[in-house]
Amino acid sequence: MGGKKKLNLKQMERMQDKKGEEEKDKKKEKSGSPREKKPLGIIPPNPKSEKVVSELKKMRVLTPYAVASRLNIRMSVAKDLLETLEKNGTIQMVSGSHNIKIYKAE
Question: What is the pLDDT of residue 61?
């Protein structure tokens, strides 16, 4: 009654050729150079460093996630860095809750 229609020989050949090409494409994609994963920094950068301060002043909004991704450091290290920069007067806290704090460069 129902069910899939039986394919003729030409249609089966086309399907096999397509599968072979797709497998070759997948192998080429996988054989490409793998991305290097760099370990995230545990040691915070020097908050008095001009390089770090200038990098942060380029950003419009400073959140722990944005700083962590820009400087390639962990989130906890980024939070500590932002707190020390706020104590030094380099940046100013705009708003925040117990979850996230948002800063701006002065």
Answer: 92
